[in-house]
Amino acid sequence: QVQLVESGGGLVQPGGSLRLSCAASGRILSINAMGWYRQAPGKERELVATISSGGSTNYADSAKGRFTVSRDNAKNTAYLQMNSLKPEDTAVYYCNAEIREAWSYSPLDYWGQGTQVTVSS
Fold first, then answer.
1. Dihedral sign, CA of 111, 49, 20, 54?
2. 72 FRET partner, CA 20 to 30 A, in 20, 21, 24, 62?
3. Each residue of 6-21: pLDDT tens digit?
4. Residue-wise over 66-104: b if at least 16 C-beta within 10 A, else e?
5. Given a cut of 90, is residue 105 above it in pLDDT?
6. How far apart (Å, rounded) are the C-alpha atoms in residues 86 and 34?
7. d(CA 36, CA 29)
8. In this predicted model, what pLDDT tens digit does every residue of 58-73 receive, in sequence order?
9. Residue 40: exposure state from Cβ atoms within 10 A (0-12, 13-18, ≥19)
């Protein structure tokens, strides 16, 4: 089965930067959209950014202008560059991908286990 693994989270000061990575592994034929979601304490999980197989991107208003989502199709990896981080960005960040796996009839939705991002002084 396909697995998504996030990395790059940590503790940063307000105004700092982090780059998250999401690596997909398994019997992958192709990956459609990939995206990043986050869930802060006491809040619902929300979309942060998505990127299509062709490179089209979509951002939440809170992320636009500060975050950049990208992908390396050769590595089956997505990235989230986060700049000008704010305390309200503190959350567990989850990678999501729609993946066509070998022997699968249609693409399926996969989630990583999350990586903690804490923005605090």
1. positive
2. 62
3. 999 999 999 999 999 9
4. ebbbebeeeebbbbbebeebeeebbbbbbbbbbbbbeee
5. no
6. 24
7. 21
8. 999 999 999 999 999 9
9. middle
